[in-house]
Design goal:
heterodimer, A: mainly beta, 4-stranded antiparallel beta sheet, 29 strands, globular, B: alpha+beta
Chain lengths: ~400, ~100
């Protein structure tokens, strides 16, 4: 029987939750990298035991960790235990921590400025990796979305990282601004049917698409309407929280925006609202059922100033019609006095049948549903605040 | 031999104990100590100083001989007690939060 592994990144370390395919009994390992913020862990779809991890700290900066045995042991890429730590000429090998904006012609872009909180211009400064997206085709290629917003890529399994600078150098860059949590590139979606196509989203710049592997980028925000910016229909400046796609239908995208749940049927060229009967259309994550491309999930949050579920009731909402018509999923979830948040990276699905859904909370719970959302159980209740959740099926 | 005391998280990262010892050619400065530390433990690159600018990270502090050297010139010679190994050079994660 297949196994399921849930990778949980938290404010104080990483945890790995494992179960058989029934998904009833779970074992917990961790904390890995205790005391560090783990923004994201994700395994390669080609080798699920190869997991990459963003380990970060306000004190000590950014570390990339890699496991080749499903999270039992970890190393910084390029620094495997027992291997030399310098090249023959004495140069230290520590490139895996090095995220430096590419300013070198012809592919680099000058280190320009973006809009700061007070409206002035502010130079790009690397802070941390928010999201790691392993390639669908090559286990040594991984994309990294970083703050301040930029896209990096490794093609050597994480040993060295290079910026795809055309995105940061987009002519609209001076208008990009950080959200309250920073100017992070938090969503990277690789099109399984079109190897050159990449979707990314930035808070608060918007959504962009490349059709040539990252050489050129196009803002795809037409149809978004954001009251909190001077021009609600601007080309950029929208605060995107999350985008999701089903691999069988890569032209259909679902978005949880700062406010509004949106849908595109033309690869982002245009968007329309599908918030429908949600009790609040503010929220962070959105995800798609593994086998039903029109079944989607969101977790409504009361408002941008009150980051907790409406009425203190933790409800996942499911739409089986691709939006507009939503049903609350409450069985097994607290329906009173619940004031946690669910962050953008903290929801995931597995592709077993029936489909499993998982989400983590800022209160330290990770909830699992083994029946497509009909009922829920906590895998763990008392972790540090959960920043990210990724589910893997292990053959 | 220069003695360097590392904060908890950097000890874990480098798989070392509380104190590491470094051979650093004279004149011994903060910069030459940090260069030697990163050369011996490359996994610490970027954790103490920014990868690009080589500036001290904002919440890291350098102490020695009961003095805060964090704002001293990086190329100024370190006290004799540090260069002789009598006193350690401390790298500290600053207190932050409430």
């Amino acid at each position: 029987m297949s196994k399921v592994r849930v990778l949980a990144g938290t404010k104080k370390g990483a945890f790995i939750l494992t179960s058989d395919g029934n998904r009833h009994r779970w074992s917990v390992s961790g904390p890995h990298f205790a005391g560090w913020e783990i923004y994201h862990l994700k395994g390669s779809p080609l080798d699920p035991n190869r997991i990459f991890c963003s380990q970060t700290s306000g004190w000590f900066g950014q570390i990339i960790q890699r496991s080749d045995d499903g999270g039992k042991t970890w190393h910084q890429p390029g620094l495997k235990p027992g291997e030399p730590t310098t090249t023959p000429d004495g140069t230290p090998i520590a490139e895996s921590n090095r995220f430096v904006y590419d300013t070198v012609p012809p592919n680099g872009k000058p280190l320009t400025t973006h809009q700061w909180y007070d409206g002035t211009q502010h130079p790009w400064e690397f802070k941390r990796v928010w999201h790691l997206e392993p390639s669908l085709n090559d286990p040594d290629t991984i994309y990294a979305g970083v703050e301040d917003a930029a896209l990096f890529r490794t093609t050597d399994g994480g040993k060295s990282w290079h910026e795809l600078a055309a995105l940061r150098g987009h002519p609209t860059g001076a208008k990009w601004a950080p959200g309250a949590g920073g100017m992070g590139l938090h969503t990277i979606i690789l099109d399984p049917k079109n190897p050159g196509r990449i979707f990314i989203a930035i808070s608060s710049a918007g959504t962009f698409r490349s059709d040539d592997g990252g050489k050129n980028w196009k803002p795809i925000n037409h149809g978004l309407h954001s009251q909190y910016i001077a021009d609600p229909n601007a080309e950029v400046g929208h605060c995107i929280h999350r985008i999701a796609m089903h691999r069988s239908r890569p032209n259909v995208l679902f978005m949880q925006k700062h406010w509004d749940v949106m849908r595109s049927d033309d690869a982002g060229d245009s968007w329309h609202e599908v918030s429908g009967n949600l009790p609040s259309d503010f929220g962070f994550p959105v995800d798609v059922h593994a086998h039903e491309p029109n079944t989607i999930y969101v977790v409504p949050i009361k408002s941008d100033s009150e980051h907790f579920p409406p009425e203190g009731k933790l409800r996942v909402y499911r739409s089986k019609s691709g939006g507009n018509e939503w049903e609350p999923l409450t069985k097994g979830l607290p329906q009173q006095d619940c004031y946690v948040n669910i962050l953008r990276e903290a929801m995931s699905v597995d592709d077993l049948d029936p489909c499993g859904i998982y989400f983590g909370t800022t209160g330290g719970q990770v909830y699992a549903s083994a029946d497509g959302g009909d009922s829920w159980n906590p895998i763990v209740r008392d972790l540090p605040a959960v920043l990210s959740v990724e589910a893997q099926v292990i053959p | 031999m220069i003695r360097v005391i590392l904060p908890h998280h950097l000890r874990t990262l480098a798989s070392v104990g509380r104190e590491v010892q470094l051979d650093v050619p004279r004149p011994v400065t903060q910069r030459s100590v940090l260069d030697a530390l990163e050369a011996k433990y490359p996994m610490l690159s970027g954790t103490i100083r920014d990868q690009s600018t080589k500036q001290r990270r904002a919440l890291v502090r350098f102490f020695a001989c009961q003095e805060d050297l964090s704002h001293e010139p990086l190329d100024a010679p370190l006290p004799e007690k540090v260069t002789s190994g009598e006193e350690p050079y401390h790298i500290i994660g600053a207190i932050a939060g409430g």
